[in-house]
Amino acid sequence: AGCEKEPSSHMWIYILLGNLLRGIGETPITPLGISYLDDFAKEEDVPVYVACLHTIAMLGPMFGFLLGSLCAKLYVDIGFVDLGSITITPRDSRWVGAWWLGFLIGGVTSFLAAIPFCFLPKSLKKPEEANNDKTSYDYSAVIMPCIFQSQLIYPFLSDFYTSLKKVLSNRMYFTFLCCSLLQFSSFIGFLTYKPKYMEQQYGQSTSKSNFLIGLTSLPPVGIGIFLGGLIMKKYKMSIIGATKFAFTMSFLAYTITLLHFFVGCENHVVAGMTVSYE
């Protein structure tokens, strides 16, 4: 009778809330960080700084895959059971790795990495050659009152709606936004399903699949972003030049990626399905 009911564990709620808080904490880094750099850095140096920001953002998933590879080699109940009594190996389909260990290590690392942000000044002196239309903006002066004083929320939302409408009415930016969504959608699907594809097609373990993905897929992306920033700085590309450069590189990348369709293994030999019983 006990096997008829599904397990009623509520642990998924903690995972959901943890990822929700993690997303809230990660959100300000990219939009506010790029605005911070754009306001206070020299105009010709901004592409390099932004490239460094995105390159570091690529290193995170890379180390995450490597950490996942290490944790997948460890049994899920490590520290609670005698590992000598475990008779299965990571190549066994019944093996469950220590998936929870990555959350603890990642959480502590994120907390330590957030400490230096507390020492950033609210404003910096702008470079002399900065454009006159660029004005520094103290985000804390807007965000904090909106949290603690409800009467300021409505004007803030009104300004936000006006700014959002103005940004989305920019055809070039809207086109770039749509292209970015398509790129990230394909890239996320690539990273999500390729490890499982390698397990099924090439007979690799979960640990080795994650290790190979983290080592071969993400570092080239990070290096490419950094080199792109250096090239833009060296040739001082305009908006049109940067658009042509991005289109050319993306087109070449998609062309090369099509070669994945020609990579694979023959079907497994299964009696009665791929070969006859004889």
From TrEMBL:
Keyword field: Disulfide bond, Ion transport, Membrane, Transmembrane, Transmembrane helix, Transport
A GO CC annotation given for this chain: basolateral plasma membrane
Principal subcellular localization: membrane
Protein name: Solute carrier organic anion transporter family member
Family annotation (PANTHER family): ORGANIC ANION TRANSPORTER, SOLUTE CARRIER ORGANIC ANION TRANSPORTER FAMILY MEMBER 1B3
This protein's record includes keyword Ion transport: yes
Protein localization: Cell membrane; Membrane
UniProt cross-references to InterPro entries, sorted A to Z: MFS_trans_sf, OATP
Single GO biological process annotation from the record: monoatomic ion transport
Family: Belongs to the organo anion transporter (TC 2.A.60) family.
Chain segments annotated as transmembrane: 48-76, 97-119, 139-161, 173-191, 211-232, 244-263
Topology in membrane: Multi-pass membrane protein
Keyword match Acetylation: no
A molecular-function term among this protein's GO annotations: sodium-independent organic anion transmembrane transporter activity
